Amino acid sequence: MADIILSGPDTSEINRSDQEFTATCELQINSSDGTLYYLRGAFFKEGTAKYCGYTWNGQSWFKGPYSSADGWKQLLPVTIASGSAKTEIKARIDPEDSDCRESGEYLFKIIRYTESGSSADDGQSPLKVVVALPTKTPTTAPMATAVPGKTKTAATEKPAATNTGKPLSTLSMPSPTITVKVKITPTKIVTATATGSANAVTSFSEASVAGISSEPVKPTLFLFLLPAILSFFLAAALSYRLLRRKRLKGL
Fold it and tell me: Which UniProt keyword terms apply here (predicted)?
């Protein structure tokens, strides 16, 4: 068995998470000179075995793991000489550990590890320390407030009117329908013969068109033939003149 004597804490209250707690530690043990041990400073609530906190190993702060990957060798080393080893140990509260997060009264003790990694709970009188860490107040990010202002409304361009009518070229115009009715009325012409007998000859005198006044056939036929007659006489006159010129040249 071994005994540990703790004395001279530099403070009885911790009010910052980065505040150091320093105490003097003397290890009394029946071991050969040169035996190496590793010391861990631990905070805990009275009546529990839930330990927490960082330990200064002379170069950096360490908080575990301790029993794996030679983690115990990252603690503060001490060497036995004449059955004891005396040193100053520094520890610090770990606010991220649920066992150290609450404010209140804590106890501080030393846990010893052998070179092989075995831990021992030596007889000692733990030191009392009051932890009063400030409560973290959650901060709410301010919400952006929209500043009222004139809102510009983009002018909406009205679509141009679309002519849905059909092109003129495709419009179908109704064609007038003219119905001509020709009514032929036979007229009997009686001609006398030398024998004194009369023969009835049927001829057609005129055609009446419904809706149009009737006109004699002969004047219409004459007007139709008049250009042809004039052309004939004109051609004859020109031919006569040409023949006459040839005859005169022949003389």
Answer: Membrane, Transmembrane, Transmembrane helix
- CA–CA distance, 241 with 91 (Å, rounded to integer): 152
Q: Report how far residue 136's alpha carbon sits from residue 102's, in angstroms, rounded to the nearest whole number.
A: 12
- Judge whether 31 and 147 are in contact, CB under 8 Å: no
| Cα distance between the two ends of the chain | 180
Q: Which residues pair with 10 in a beta bridge?
A: none
Pairing of strands 127-131, 198-209: unpaired
- Which amino acid is present at 109? K
Q: What is the Cα–Cα distance from 15 to 226, expressed in whole angstroms?
A: 140
**Predicted confidence (pLDDT) per residue in 91-100, tens digit:** 999 989 988 8
Question: In this structure, is the dihedral angle defined by the CA atoms of residues 210, 212, 213 and 218, taken in order, positive or negative?
Answer: negative
Residue with tokens 């029993």: 67
Preceding amide of 176 cis, omega within 30: no
Domain boundaries, the chain: 2-131, 182-250
How high does pLDDT run on average in the chain?
Answer: 77
pLDDT tens, residue by residue, 91-130: 999 989 988 888 899 999 999 999 999 999 899 999 999 9
The string over 2-33, giving b where at least 16 C-beta atoms fall within 10 Å of a residue's C-beta and e elsewhere, is bebebeeeeeeebeeeeeebebebbbbbebee
DSSP string, 89-140: EEEE--TTSTTT-S-EEEEEEEEEE-TTS-EE--B--PEEEEE-PPPPPPPP
CATH topology (fold) of 2-131: Immunoglobulin-like (2.60.40)
